User: Fold this.
Amino acid sequence: MMRSNVRVSRIALPIAAAAVLAFSQTVTYREPFRPRFHFTPTVNWTNDPNGLVYHRGEWHLFYQFNPFGDVWGHMSWGHAVSADLYRWKHLPVALPEEGEVMAFSGSAVVDRRNTSDFGRDGEPAMVAIYTSRTPTDQTQSLAYSTDMGRSWSRYSGNPVLDHEDPAFRDPKVFWHEATGKWVMIVALAEQRKAALYSSPDLKSWTHLSDFGPEGAHPVRNWECPDLFELPVEGEPGQSRWVLQVDSGRGHPWLGSGCQYFIGEFDGRRFRNDNPPETALWLDWGRDFYAAQSFSNVPAEDGRRLVIGWISNWMYAREMPTSPWRGGQSVARELALRRFPEGLRVVQRPAREIETLREASISLRDLSVREANDRIRREGFRGDSLELVAVLDVGSADDLGLRVLQSDAQETVVGFTASPAEVYVDRSKSGNVDFHDTFAGRHSARLDAPDGRLQLHVLVDRSVVEVFAGKGRVAITDRVFPDPSSTGLSVFAKGGEARVVSLDAWQMRSAWE
Assistant:
């Protein structure tokens, strides 16, 4: 959550809401660069996902939203719900800015035990914990709803938590079963620390400890922290805690990004398993930030699901989209997997994405030339695709997939044998000149065990999300190709490679 001095009168908010509603009714979700299955608001600016929570059959996505325009300012909580994490229904603004007090980022919980006494007639309250931001201070506040998040009341005792440091924001709250209390992790942004607090009732908070600064250095700040437990794949009964923070500047490929730490949390203090200087990144692209996990996910589901903002603070205000600016990643399922260097987070798209699949092509055991001949012969192309590929590296130095391709444009999802790394190259992906840092190649180290590269790629008009090595590496990049750039091909350079398998689907719009 970046800071700015913006003022608005309370009287103007209803007028702005009416204007947004009228404009929204003209939106088709077919505008240039509009993703088909990634969340975007109908109009105006959005950034951080907020208050991700599941309640009675609905996934709630709140998000930073400007009711007045398509640049950052007047921050309020927009709101949408979904039954399947992909098809979203827009709802009215949940927490509007009030006077000079913006509703900055935060989280939401379902208070099933009614510890806050906000519940009514047996209905547990959905409680939002958010940062109240004035031009000079940032404090933590509460709002609550007892009608499935359709209407909200701000707590009369706000703020519930303050700090002498004014850069104090983005609370993430969860119930800690072992201690029987709520735990809040909140950023001391400029100190690059995450502060931990506990509460019996969401209203009174006791400081527990601070974590940081550790990890990547130098970074501009820490924002949007999260803390959750993950099981270790293939090791029954084993789990570790993941503490995630976001940095406005400091990512290896410039600008903002998400880093994480793996360790222990005993209800009071988080202890990092790795040396303090170890920097682990949730995503190696330029456009994944402010990730937050869902709370109150049913036990029978059992997944840890996160969504992140698909943009970068270096150029977010200049993205060439209209009448909206900004959007969210697909929901991702997280797990921990053990590698020679230790435990690492792995991720994949939430499985419900399969419900959006339409026309497909399936290739098996072909040379690169044979695969491209089949793709051309069957006329398979598109600007919204899901691709699952296994490529035999063979003697190739560089191989992979070209998507959103035309004679002059392409976005490359590739792998080099030396150094062993996966990458996305958007240097020729269309409009790359709107900002002088946009064009480029973004990579991460990745081995190809047994000489085989595994790729899971989501292409959605202006979004490319790559999950490589069974989710070991994620790379998310925005791209802005011409409408005619819908081609797909396989490539290999410096030697021979083979397509072990390629399953590709054209994707239907989640908004139709």
Remarks:
- The two ends are 32 Å apart (CA to CA).
- The chain has two helices and 33 strands.
- Residues 1-11 have pLDDT under 50 and may be disordered.
- The longest strand covers residues 44-55.
